[in-house]
């Protein structure tokens, strides 16, 4: 199993809308990928309530590295990335196998 964790910083547009609103929008879009992207087992978006450098996170579980690779190029995921890029200007990512 592969875990994929992304941390995002909101840009001015995202801050204007507020993290809660952006997270709610993205949560719906990412959850819609379940059952669409083969090998995607779990996905969620959350707001960081703890302060610090990053405002939001994306957490995913995949069956395999190959499933994660397919997710990265899946047309439905690429459409969501376009939306994400309108709200964020910083990103960090960690992927690991368990």
Automatic annotation (TrEMBL):
PROSITE patterns: S_R_A_B_BARREL. Residues 2-96 form the Stress-response A/B barrel domain. SUPFAM superfamilies: Dimeric alpha+beta barrel (SSF54909). It holds the Pfam family Dabb. InterPro entries: Dabb, Dimeric_a/b-barrel. It comes from the Bacteria. PANTHER family: BLL2683 PROTEIN, STRESS-RESPONSE A_B BARREL DOMAIN-CONTAINING PROTEIN. This is Dabb family protein. It comes from Clostridium cibarium.
């Amino acid at each position: 199993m592969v875990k994929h964790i992304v941390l995002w910083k909101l840009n001015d547009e995202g801050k204007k809308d507020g993290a809660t609103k952006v997270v709610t929008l993205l949560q719906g879009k990412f959850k819609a990928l379940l059952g669409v992207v083969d090998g995607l087992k779990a996905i969620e978006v959350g707001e960081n309530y703890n302060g610090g450098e990053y405002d939001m996170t994306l957490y995913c579980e995949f069956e395999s590295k190959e499933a994660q690779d397919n997710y990265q190029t899946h047309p439905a995921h690429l459409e969501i990335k376009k939306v994400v890029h309108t709200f964020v200007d910083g990103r960090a990512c960690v992927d690991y196998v368990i």
